[in-house]
Amino acid sequence: MLSPTGAKLEVHNVCKSYGLKGKQLRVLDDINLQIHSREFVCLVGASGCGKSTLLNIVAGLAAPSSGAVFVDSQLVTGRPGSDRGMVFQGYTLYPWLTVAQNVAFGLQLRQMSKAEQRDRVGYFLNVVGLSKFANSYPKQLSGGMKQRVAIARALANEPAVLLMDEPFGALDAQTKEQMQQFLLELWAQTHVTVMMITHDIEEAIYLSQRVYVMSAHPGQIKAEITIQLPERRELDIKLSPTFVDIKRQIIHTLRHDVATVSL
User: Fold this and answer.
1) Which domain holds residue 240?
2) Helix crossing, 173-190 with 143-156: angle to 10°?
3) Would you say residue 260 has pLDDT above 60?
4) What are phi and psi of 33, to 5 degrees?
5) Are the C-beta atoms of 89 and 169 separated by less than 8 Å?
6) Which residues contact 152 (CB under 8 A, 6 or more apart)?
7) What are the percentages of helix, strand and coil residues in the chain, rounded to 5?
């Protein structure tokens, strides 16, 4: 079974339901979205709209009740592999391993040669600016540094798509902004295809080229918004009239959804 559109990542007619006390609770309803090669796309939505469920289905950590997910036109049938890298909100680093060993973990599972592992780990630690901390342990790092290690570990496998689940949600406001700028610079350097979920509207606008807005009960794609901002962005762009207008549009869409559910 091949992707109908040939997009880098495609979610095609995905639904997800859970059995609850003899009834079916529909969490996701007819989700359709496409992400093209080298795009950075964010999904935003209120808590409980199914963002994380959708990301887990794309990652292969959960199966859809119906519909399909494709990466490079191939049907996703299993857990994350070399085609899908995953970065979670929690740093998910192994505390007994050094930074370099954490980054190399997936490469070892692929039985890559020691020399190639060393070269690839060195390259990606340099990319995320942590070469000097290769022999440090996670407990010696700040929250932002830990998340850089997690991103380097995901990138080291050279995934077709990088999936990110609220990656900066546990960071303080200042570190979060620093990490947003770092991620945008990293994406400009690597041009990896990214699908990221976040509840932070400003973060979604600042980072992405397109934003999908999800409604809840059940989760559906309510709007697709193209971000008409320069590819190279500084933090001050969040104060620009264009940025504020986009934020107002997304807030209005989410507010209308909440009001509809409340009624």
Assistant:
1) 9-83+161-262
2) 20
3) no
4) -155, 155
5) yes
6) 103, 124, 125, 127, 128, 130
7) 40, 25, 35
